Amino acid sequence: MSRTVQFPDEEVSSSETFERILPLNVNFHDPEDVVAIPTNYASRAAMDVHIKQIVDKIKEVREEFSVMAAKGLIDSDYVDTVLHATEVVVDGMILNIKRHYHQREEGLRTRREREYAAIRRTGCFNRIKRAFVTMSYSIDTHAVIMKMEENKRTRILLDAFKKLRLHSHIATLTDGGSEPHWNWSLA
Asked: For the whole model, what pTM was predicted?
């Protein structure tokens, strides 16, 4: 039994719509292996653990393609379905990674504005305190660092998907694992 990803037909998004979406599954030969994409992360360590789990599942599918290609020709519809499901999972994770870092940047802006408001409320217009707050909540520096972290995590997912796509092409081109279709033997 295999599960496919079904998206709602309605334009309106509601809680009932999301409850009807079937869980995402990367490996269709194991229907119990469901991928759950969290919407928020408590820490970067939790995000890294989840990214590692998804990359490991993509690696399992890649190895499965190699085994199936060694046995014989594989179904291109199955490969396309798996690639589409994996692309949905990777896109969902990338969206959540971007959301996480945008929320962190917005939190940094909010904390800086609270500090400025606290300085104004005390009636102290000390430029040294204001400069200290500006330096400690420097958004430009933090934004560059967060963008680098976001790009690093996004690159990990995209590299895993790129490898899966490459292995799927190789698996569909091989003939029983012995030689590719384009490599004609002279015998």
From this structure: 0.70
